[in-house]
């Protein structure tokens, strides 16, 4: 009499191998509660910020710390700061570049980046309000006119055999006045209380995060930031940078 083969599903040795394989596979995967966690970021801000300007045009520097506390990879697409004063929206400043390391002298262009779960992105980041097309054109004309006047003056002195390498040349008032007007039209860091919103935009709306902070600009800060105007008549702050303080550090707290 011929033996009947045992069906595979009745073979306990087969199921032993299957169970062992499944157990090994599961051991390589994250726990279920991790797999079920959504993409989520946590945002921290160092307690001090730096404000500055370019011919009045406002800029801001923050030390940001982003942590992926969710269970999925997150791609950060943009970081933007919104500034409010006396309840009114004042300006938006997008992240433009950052320091790869705190002691670096040169910045790295801010681009989209990915954060895996439990990973951190912590950098000193510059939020810059670049000139628009019209403002850039006006600024370039102011700078160009002053620089052309300086070179003409140097050429004239050289033709007379005069050495003026250490001389501060004072430009005509009609060339300097547009610089003062540009400054007044663009300067935003006036004394008062400010609110600041930092928003991080990702590829997953549920992972987007926003935090609100507040800081104060005092009269003494305005004096420091406005001191550059004293150098406009010499071209300082335009086609050369005088060695003076052009930024102030402020305390910031959560709103």
Summarize the structure.
The protein is an alpha+beta fold and 255 residues long. It is built from 5 helices and 12 strands.
What oligomeric assembly is this protein in? single chain
Order of H and E elements: HHEEEEEEEEHHEEHEE
Identify the CATH class of the domain at 41-131 and 187-254.
Mainly Beta
Shape summary: elongated
CATH topology assignment of the domain at 41-131 and 187-254: Immunoglobulin-like
CATH homology group of the domain at 41-131 and 187-254: Immunoglobulins
What descriptors fit this protein?
alpha+beta, Immunoglobulin-like, 12 strands
3D architecture notes:
This protein has 255 residues and is of the alpha+beta class. The protein has helices at residues 12-27, 32-35, 133-159, 173-186, 219-226; strands at 41-45, 48-54, 57-68, 74-85, 88-98, 108-109, 113-115, 120-128, 192-202, 209-217, 247-251, 253-254. The chain is elongated, with a radius of gyration of 30 Å. The mean pLDDT is 89.
Task: Walk me through the topology.
Layout lengths: L11 H16 L4 H4 L5 E5 L2 E7 L2 E12 L5 E12 L2 E11 L9 E2 L3 E3 L4 E9 L4 H27 L13 H14 L5 E11 L6 E9 L1 H8 L20 E5 L1 E2 L1
Antiparallel strand pairs: 1-3, 2-3, 2-11, 3-8, 4-5, 4-7, 4-9, 5-6, 5-8, 9-10, 10-12
